[in-house]
Protein backbone atom coordinates (compact mmCIF):
# COMPACT_ATOMS: atom_id res chain seq x y z
CA UNK A 1 0.00 0.00 0.00
CA UNK A 2 1.38 3.42 -0.89
CA UNK A 3 0.68 6.76 0.79
CA UNK A 4 -2.14 7.69 -1.61
CA UNK A 5 -3.92 4.40 -1.05
CA UNK A 6 -3.41 4.75 2.69
CA UNK A 7 -4.91 8.26 2.74
CA UNK A 8 -7.90 7.09 0.69
CA UNK A 9 -8.55 4.25 3.14
CA UNK A 10 -8.02 6.58 6.09
CA UNK A 11 -10.62 9.04 4.78
CA UNK A 12 -13.19 6.37 4.00
CA UNK A 13 -12.59 3.89 6.79
CA UNK A 14 -10.36 5.22 9.57
CA UNK A 15 -10.89 2.12 11.70
CA UNK A 16 -9.75 -0.22 8.96
CA UNK A 17 -8.08 -3.39 10.15
CA UNK A 18 -6.70 -4.24 6.76
CA UNK A 19 -3.20 -5.72 7.17
CA UNK A 20 -1.63 -3.55 4.43
CA UNK A 21 -3.19 -0.44 5.97
CA UNK A 22 -1.79 -1.25 9.42
CA UNK A 23 1.64 -2.12 8.00
CA UNK A 24 1.90 1.16 6.06
CA UNK A 25 0.96 3.12 9.18
CA UNK A 26 3.87 1.53 10.99
CA UNK A 27 6.32 2.12 8.18
CA UNK A 28 5.44 5.72 7.13
CA UNK A 29 5.86 8.50 9.70
CA UNK A 30 3.86 11.03 7.65
CA UNK A 31 0.91 8.69 7.31
CA UNK A 32 1.16 7.72 10.99
CA UNK A 33 0.85 11.42 11.84
CA UNK A 34 -2.17 11.73 9.50
CA UNK A 35 -3.66 8.69 11.17
CA UNK A 36 -3.25 10.27 14.62
CA UNK A 37 -4.96 13.47 13.41
CA UNK A 38 -7.77 11.46 11.81
CA UNK A 39 -8.26 9.39 14.97
CA UNK A 40 -8.58 12.58 17.03
CA UNK A 41 -11.17 13.87 14.58
CA UNK A 42 -13.07 10.58 14.72
CA UNK A 43 -13.24 10.70 18.51
CA UNK A 44 -14.59 14.26 18.39
CA UNK A 45 -17.01 13.33 15.61
CA UNK A 46 -18.30 10.32 17.53
CA UNK A 47 -18.73 12.41 20.66
CA UNK A 48 -20.53 15.13 18.68
CA UNK A 49 -22.92 12.65 17.19
CA UNK A 50 -23.60 11.11 20.54
CA UNK A 51 -26.39 13.51 21.46
CA UNK A 52 -28.32 12.59 24.61
CA UNK A 53 -31.55 10.66 24.08
CA UNK A 54 -34.60 11.95 25.96
CA UNK A 55 -35.01 10.62 29.46
CA UNK A 56 -37.68 7.96 29.73
CA UNK A 57 -37.46 7.31 25.97
CA UNK A 58 -37.62 3.52 26.41
CA UNK A 59 -40.46 3.81 28.95
CA UNK A 60 -42.50 6.06 26.67
CA UNK A 61 -42.08 3.61 23.76
CA UNK A 62 -43.07 0.64 25.92
CA UNK A 63 -46.06 2.57 27.25
CA UNK A 64 -47.14 3.47 23.70
CA UNK A 65 -46.82 -0.17 22.66
CA UNK A 66 -48.80 -1.40 25.68
CA UNK A 67 -51.51 1.21 25.08
CA UNK A 68 -51.81 0.34 21.41
CA UNK A 69 -51.97 -3.37 22.20
CA UNK A 70 -54.70 -2.77 24.75
CA UNK A 71 -56.69 -0.65 22.28
CA UNK A 72 -56.33 -3.32 19.65
CA UNK A 73 -57.56 -6.01 22.05
CA UNK A 74 -60.53 -3.79 22.96
CA UNK A 75 -61.20 -3.17 19.29
CA UNK A 76 -61.24 -6.89 18.52
CA UNK A 77 -63.36 -7.61 21.60
CA UNK A 78 -65.79 -4.86 20.58
CA UNK A 79 -65.71 -6.20 17.02
CA UNK A 80 -66.64 -9.67 18.27
CA UNK A 81 -69.52 -8.27 20.31
CA UNK A 82 -70.72 -6.24 17.32
CA UNK A 83 -70.47 -9.30 15.06
CA UNK A 84 -72.52 -11.32 17.56
CA UNK A 85 -75.09 -8.54 17.81
CA UNK A 86 -75.25 -8.34 14.02
CA UNK A 87 -75.76 -12.12 13.82
CA UNK A 88 -78.64 -11.92 16.32
CA UNK A 89 -80.25 -9.08 14.37
CA UNK A 90 -79.77 -10.98 11.10
CA UNK A 91 -81.18 -14.21 12.52
CA UNK A 92 -84.12 -12.31 13.98
CA UNK A 93 -84.67 -10.60 10.62
CA UNK A 94 -84.61 -13.93 8.79
CA UNK A 95 -87.01 -15.38 11.36
CA UNK A 96 -89.34 -12.42 11.00
CA UNK A 97 -89.17 -12.71 7.23
CA UNK A 98 -90.06 -16.42 7.40
CA UNK A 99 -92.85 -15.62 9.78
CA UNK A 100 -94.12 -12.82 7.60
CA UNK A 101 -94.01 -14.85 4.34
CA UNK A 102 -97.60 -15.17 2.93
CA UNK A 103 -99.15 -18.66 2.86
CA UNK A 104 -99.46 -18.50 -0.94
CA UNK A 105 -95.66 -18.07 -1.27
CA UNK A 106 -94.93 -20.84 1.22
CA UNK A 107 -97.40 -23.15 -0.55
CA UNK A 108 -95.73 -22.75 -3.96
CA UNK A 109 -92.29 -23.31 -2.37
CA UNK A 110 -93.61 -26.42 -0.66
CA UNK A 111 -95.13 -27.73 -3.89
CA UNK A 112 -91.74 -27.34 -5.61
CA UNK A 113 -90.00 -29.17 -2.76
CA UNK A 114 -92.53 -32.02 -2.87
CA UNK A 115 -92.90 -32.16 -6.68
CA UNK A 116 -92.72 -35.97 -6.58
CA UNK A 117 -96.20 -36.03 -5.04
CA UNK A 118 -97.61 -34.79 -8.35
CA UNK A 119 -96.43 -37.92 -10.13
CA UNK A 120 -98.41 -40.37 -7.96
CA UNK A 121 -101.55 -41.69 -9.60
CA UNK A 122 -102.77 -44.51 -7.36
CA UNK A 123 -105.86 -43.46 -5.32
CA UNK A 124 -105.33 -43.10 -1.58
CA UNK A 125 -107.81 -44.80 0.74
CA UNK A 126 -110.38 -42.49 2.31
CA UNK A 127 -109.33 -43.75 5.74
CA UNK A 128 -105.76 -42.50 5.21
CA UNK A 129 -107.09 -39.05 4.35
CA UNK A 130 -109.31 -39.03 7.40
CA UNK A 131 -106.36 -40.13 9.57
CA UNK A 132 -104.13 -37.40 8.24
CA UNK A 133 -106.68 -34.73 9.14
CA UNK A 134 -107.28 -36.39 12.49
CA UNK A 135 -103.57 -36.11 13.19
CA UNK A 136 -104.01 -32.35 12.80
CA UNK A 137 -107.04 -32.40 15.07
CA UNK A 138 -109.67 -32.10 12.36
CA UNK A 139 -112.55 -34.48 11.88
CA UNK A 140 -113.73 -34.68 8.28
CA UNK A 141 -117.47 -34.97 7.66
CA UNK A 142 -116.82 -36.41 4.24
CA UNK A 143 -113.75 -37.54 2.24
CA UNK A 144 -113.54 -36.28 -1.35
CA UNK A 145 -112.70 -38.87 -3.99
CA UNK A 146 -109.70 -38.74 -6.32
CA UNK A 147 -106.93 -38.18 -3.69
CA UNK A 148 -103.63 -39.61 -5.01
CA UNK A 149 -101.35 -38.34 -2.22
CA UNK A 150 -101.77 -37.31 1.39
CA UNK A 151 -99.20 -36.22 3.95
CA UNK A 152 -98.96 -34.23 7.16
CA UNK A 153 -96.31 -31.72 6.14
CA UNK A 154 -94.74 -28.80 7.93
CA UNK A 155 -94.74 -25.69 5.71
CA UNK A 156 -92.46 -23.07 7.15
CA UNK A 157 -93.66 -22.77 10.72
CA UNK A 158 -97.18 -23.94 9.80
CA UNK A 159 -98.85 -27.34 10.19
CA UNK A 160 -100.64 -28.58 7.09
CA UNK A 161 -102.28 -31.52 5.43
CA UNK A 162 -100.89 -31.82 1.94
CA UNK A 163 -102.98 -33.63 -0.72
CA UNK A 164 -102.96 -34.17 -4.47
CA UNK A 165 -106.25 -34.79 -6.31
CA UNK A 166 -106.43 -36.18 -9.82
CA UNK A 167 -109.08 -35.87 -12.46
CA UNK A 168 -108.35 -36.74 -16.11
CA UNK A 169 -104.65 -36.85 -15.19
CA UNK A 170 -104.57 -33.17 -14.21
CA UNK A 171 -103.30 -32.93 -10.63
CA UNK A 172 -104.57 -30.29 -8.23
CA UNK A 173 -102.53 -29.76 -5.11
CA UNK A 174 -104.58 -29.12 -1.98
CA UNK A 175 -102.86 -27.77 1.11
CA UNK A 176 -104.92 -27.23 4.19
CA UNK A 177 -103.08 -24.94 6.62
CA UNK A 178 -104.40 -25.89 10.00
CA UNK A 179 -103.08 -23.10 12.18
CA UNK A 180 -103.67 -19.89 10.20
CA UNK A 181 -106.88 -18.56 8.72
CA UNK A 182 -106.28 -15.94 6.02
CA UNK A 183 -108.83 -13.15 5.95
CA UNK A 184 -110.12 -13.32 2.39
CA UNK A 185 -110.67 -15.73 -0.48
CA UNK A 186 -108.17 -14.95 -3.22
CA UNK A 187 -107.09 -16.30 -6.60
CA UNK A 188 -103.40 -15.77 -7.40
CA UNK A 189 -100.61 -16.67 -9.83
CA UNK A 190 -97.04 -17.42 -8.83
CA UNK A 191 -94.07 -18.95 -10.66
CA UNK A 192 -96.28 -20.38 -13.40
CA UNK A 193 -98.79 -21.86 -10.99
CA UNK A 194 -102.38 -20.77 -10.54
CA UNK A 195 -103.70 -20.75 -7.04
CA UNK A 196 -106.60 -20.06 -4.76
CA UNK A 197 -106.53 -19.29 -1.06
CA UNK A 198 -109.76 -19.92 0.85
CA UNK A 199 -110.39 -19.29 4.58
CA UNK A 200 -112.04 -22.48 5.72
CA UNK A 201 -112.89 -23.66 9.24
CA UNK A 202 -110.11 -22.63 11.56
CA UNK A 203 -107.50 -22.62 8.78
CA UNK A 204 -106.84 -21.85 5.11
CA UNK A 205 -107.35 -24.08 2.09
CA UNK A 206 -104.84 -23.49 -0.72
CA UNK A 207 -105.35 -24.96 -4.19
CA UNK A 208 -102.54 -25.04 -6.77
CA UNK A 209 -102.61 -26.31 -10.38
CA UNK A 210 -101.39 -25.52 -13.89
CA UNK A 211 -104.90 -24.21 -14.65
CA UNK A 212 -107.74 -23.18 -12.38
CA UNK A 213 -110.66 -24.82 -14.21
CA UNK A 214 -111.21 -27.41 -11.47
CA UNK A 215 -110.75 -25.04 -8.52
CA UNK A 216 -114.49 -24.36 -7.98
CA UNK A 217 -115.31 -28.09 -7.93
CA UNK A 218 -112.41 -28.99 -5.64
CA UNK A 219 -113.18 -26.07 -3.31
CA UNK A 220 -116.79 -27.24 -3.07
CA UNK A 221 -115.69 -30.78 -2.16
CA UNK A 222 -113.47 -29.56 0.70
CA UNK A 223 -116.05 -27.07 1.98
CA UNK A 224 -118.30 -30.05 2.39
CA UNK A 225 -115.59 -32.17 3.94
CA UNK A 226 -114.30 -29.61 6.41
CA UNK A 227 -117.66 -27.89 6.78
CA UNK A 228 -117.54 -24.15 6.38
CA UNK A 229 -118.89 -21.55 3.94
CA UNK A 230 -116.95 -18.77 2.19
CA UNK A 231 -117.67 -15.70 -0.01
CA UNK A 232 -116.93 -15.28 -3.77
CA UNK A 233 -113.29 -15.37 -4.96
CA UNK A 234 -111.42 -12.15 -5.78
CA UNK A 235 -109.06 -12.16 -8.81
CA UNK B 1 -45.02 -11.52 30.34
CA UNK B 2 -44.75 -13.36 27.01
CA UNK B 3 -41.35 -14.16 25.49
CA UNK B 4 -42.19 -11.86 22.59
CA UNK B 5 -42.84 -9.02 25.02
CA UNK B 6 -39.60 -9.77 26.90
CA UNK B 7 -37.63 -9.71 23.66
CA UNK B 8 -39.28 -6.45 22.64
CA UNK B 9 -38.57 -4.82 26.02
CA UNK B 10 -34.92 -5.81 25.73
CA UNK B 11 -34.68 -4.36 22.23
CA UNK B 12 -36.27 -1.09 23.29
CA UNK B 13 -34.05 -0.70 26.34
CA UNK B 14 -30.82 -1.55 24.53
CA UNK B 15 -31.35 0.16 21.16
CA UNK B 16 -33.79 3.05 21.56
CA UNK B 17 -30.97 5.50 22.40
CA UNK B 18 -28.93 4.59 19.32
CA UNK B 19 -32.02 4.72 17.15
CA UNK B 20 -32.97 8.11 18.54
CA UNK B 21 -29.52 9.49 17.66
CA UNK B 22 -29.76 8.02 14.19
CA UNK B 23 -33.25 9.49 13.74
CA UNK B 24 -32.14 12.86 15.01
CA UNK B 25 -29.27 13.12 12.53
CA UNK B 26 -31.61 11.96 9.81
CA UNK B 27 -34.30 14.59 10.41
CA UNK B 28 -32.54 17.24 12.54
CA UNK B 29 -35.44 17.58 14.97
CA UNK B 30 -35.58 16.06 18.47
CA UNK B 31 -39.38 15.80 18.74
CA UNK B 32 -39.68 14.30 15.28
CA UNK B 33 -36.85 11.91 16.06
CA UNK B 34 -38.73 10.77 19.17
CA UNK B 35 -41.87 10.12 17.10
CA UNK B 36 -39.88 8.30 14.44
CA UNK B 37 -38.23 6.00 16.97
CA UNK B 38 -41.55 5.28 18.66
CA UNK B 39 -43.25 4.47 15.36
CA UNK B 40 -40.26 2.32 14.35
CA UNK B 41 -40.56 0.22 17.50
CA UNK B 42 -44.34 -0.07 17.15
CA UNK B 43 -43.88 -1.41 13.63
CA UNK B 44 -41.08 -3.65 14.85
CA UNK B 45 -43.42 -5.10 17.49
CA UNK B 46 -45.93 -6.10 14.83
CA UNK B 47 -43.19 -7.72 12.71
CA UNK B 48 -41.06 -9.11 15.53
CA UNK B 49 -41.60 -12.67 14.34
CA UNK B 50 -39.69 -11.75 11.16
CA UNK B 51 -36.53 -11.04 13.16
CA UNK B 52 -34.50 -14.22 12.85
CA UNK B 53 -31.23 -13.22 14.57
CA UNK B 54 -31.06 -10.90 17.52
CA UNK B 55 -27.59 -9.79 16.32
CA UNK B 56 -29.23 -8.33 13.22
CA UNK B 57 -31.76 -6.34 15.25
CA UNK B 58 -30.02 -2.97 14.93
CA UNK B 59 -29.73 -3.13 11.16
CA UNK B 60 -33.34 -4.36 10.97
CA UNK B 61 -34.57 -1.48 13.12
CA UNK B 62 -32.57 1.05 11.12
CA UNK B 63 -34.18 -0.27 7.94
CA UNK B 64 -37.64 0.24 9.49
CA UNK B 65 -36.66 3.69 10.74
CA UNK B 66 -35.40 4.77 7.33
CA UNK B 67 -38.68 3.62 5.76
CA UNK B 68 -40.65 5.51 8.37
CA UNK B 69 -38.58 8.61 7.68
CA UNK B 70 -39.16 8.25 3.93
CA UNK B 71 -42.92 7.82 4.56
CA UNK B 72 -42.90 10.95 6.65
CA UNK B 73 -41.49 12.90 3.76
CA UNK B 74 -43.99 11.36 1.36
CA UNK B 75 -46.80 12.56 3.62
CA UNK B 76 -45.34 15.97 4.39
CA UNK B 77 -44.44 18.25 1.53
CA UNK B 78 -41.35 20.32 2.33
CA UNK B 79 -42.39 23.67 3.78
CA UNK B 80 -40.61 26.81 2.77
CA UNK B 81 -39.77 28.97 5.77
CA UNK B 82 -39.24 32.66 5.88
CA UNK B 83 -35.57 33.70 6.00
CA UNK B 84 -36.10 35.48 9.34
CA UNK B 85 -37.56 32.30 10.85
CA UNK B 86 -34.53 30.30 9.76
CA UNK B 87 -32.18 32.75 11.47
CA UNK B 88 -34.21 32.57 14.68
CA UNK B 89 -34.22 28.78 14.56
CA UNK B 90 -30.47 28.67 14.06
CA UNK B 91 -29.89 31.10 16.91
CA UNK B 92 -32.14 29.00 19.14
CA UNK B 93 -30.22 25.88 18.22
CA UNK B 94 -26.92 27.59 18.83
CA UNK B 95 -27.97 28.49 22.37
CA UNK B 96 -28.59 24.85 23.31
CA UNK B 97 -25.73 23.26 25.25
CA UNK B 98 -25.47 20.56 22.59
CA UNK B 99 -24.54 23.22 20.03
CA UNK B 100 -21.82 24.99 21.96
CA UNK B 101 -18.08 24.31 21.96
CA UNK B 102 -16.14 22.20 19.50
CA UNK B 103 -18.73 19.42 19.45
CA UNK B 104 -21.45 22.01 18.83
CA UNK B 105 -19.58 23.24 15.77
CA UNK B 106 -19.38 19.69 14.45
CA UNK B 107 -23.10 19.16 15.15
CA UNK B 108 -24.03 22.29 13.22
CA UNK B 109 -21.78 21.18 10.39
CA UNK B 110 -23.36 17.72 10.42
CA UNK B 111 -26.83 19.23 10.03
CA UNK B 112 -25.63 21.25 7.06
CA UNK B 113 -24.18 18.18 5.37
CA UNK B 114 -26.20 16.88 2.42
CA UNK B 115 -28.23 13.76 3.34
CA UNK B 116 -26.43 11.61 0.75
CA UNK B 117 -23.16 12.22 2.63
CA UNK B 118 -24.59 12.40 6.13
CA UNK B 119 -26.45 9.11 6.09
CA UNK B 120 -23.63 6.72 5.24
CA UNK B 121 -21.38 8.58 7.68
CA UNK B 122 -24.02 8.11 10.39
CA UNK B 123 -24.25 4.42 9.67
CA UNK B 124 -20.49 4.07 9.84
CA UNK B 125 -19.77 6.22 12.91
CA UNK B 126 -22.95 5.71 14.95
CA UNK B 127 -24.04 2.31 13.72
CA UNK B 128 -20.59 0.76 13.36
CA UNK B 129 -21.60 -0.78 10.03
CA UNK B 130 -19.04 -1.83 7.42
CA UNK B 131 -19.05 -0.33 3.92
CA UNK B 132 -20.63 -3.54 2.60
CA UNK B 133 -23.44 -3.40 5.15
CA UNK B 134 -24.08 0.27 4.42
CA UNK B 135 -24.08 -0.48 0.71
CA UNK B 136 -26.72 -3.18 1.19
CA UNK B 137 -28.91 -0.90 3.29
CA UNK B 138 -28.61 2.11 0.96
CA UNK B 139 -28.75 -0.06 -2.16
CA UNK B 140 -25.57 1.38 -3.63
CA UNK B 141 -22.15 -0.15 -4.31
CA UNK B 142 -19.49 -0.45 -1.57
CA UNK B 143 -17.23 1.78 -3.69
CA UNK B 144 -19.93 4.47 -3.72
CA UNK B 145 -20.21 4.21 0.06
CA UNK B 146 -16.44 4.68 0.42
CA UNK B 147 -16.56 7.74 -1.80
CA UNK B 148 -19.46 9.24 0.13
CA UNK B 149 -18.02 8.75 3.60
CA UNK B 150 -14.66 10.07 2.39
CA UNK B 151 -16.31 13.18 0.98
CA UNK B 152 -18.51 13.58 4.06
CA UNK B 153 -15.41 13.83 6.26
CA UNK B 154 -13.74 16.22 3.87
CA UNK B 155 -16.78 18.48 3.76
CA UNK B 156 -17.09 18.48 7.53
CA UNK B 157 -13.42 19.46 7.91
CA UNK B 158 -13.85 22.24 5.37
CA UNK B 159 -16.96 23.55 7.16
CA UNK B 160 -15.04 23.49 10.44
CA UNK B 161 -12.33 25.61 8.89
CA UNK B 162 -9.64 22.95 9.03
CA UNK B 163 -10.15 21.68 5.51
CA UNK B 164 -7.66 19.20 4.26
CA UNK B 165 -6.00 21.23 1.55
CA UNK B 166 -4.71 18.11 -0.07
CA UNK B 167 -8.06 16.42 0.18
CA UNK B 168 -8.71 16.48 -3.52
CA UNK B 169 -5.54 14.50 -4.08
CA UNK B 170 -6.89 11.62 -2.00
CA UNK B 171 -10.46 11.72 -3.31
CA UNK B 172 -11.77 8.44 -4.56
CA UNK B 173 -12.86 8.06 -8.13
Q: Quick summary of this structure?
A:
By secondary structure, chain A is an alpha+beta fold.
Overall tally of structural domains of chain A: 2
Number of helices of chain B: 9
**Helix tally of chain A?**
7
Number of domains as seen in the coordinates of chain B? 2
Please give the alpha-carbon distance between the first and last residues of chain A: 110 Å
Largest contact between chains: A-B, 27 and 41 residues
Main beta sheet of chain B: strand number and arrangement?
A: none
CATH superfamily of the largest domain in chain B: RNA polymerase sigma factor, region 2, helix turn helix motif
CATH architecture of the largest domain in chain B: Orthogonal Bundle
Kindly report the average pLDDT value of chain B. 80
* Rg of chain B, nearest Å: 18 Å
CATH architecture assignment name of the largest domain in chain A: 3-Layer(aba) Sandwich
Q: What is the CATH third-level topology name of the largest domain in chain B?
A: Rna Polymerase Sigma Factor, Chain: A
Briefly note the structural class of the backbone of chain A.
Answer: alpha+beta
- Beta percentage of chain A is 15-25%
- Beta-strand portion of chain B reads under 5%
The beta-strand count of chain B equals 0
**Biggest β-sheet strands, sense, barrel of chain A:** 7 strands, antiparallel
CATH topology-level fold name of the largest domain in chain A: Protein Transport Mog1p, Chain A
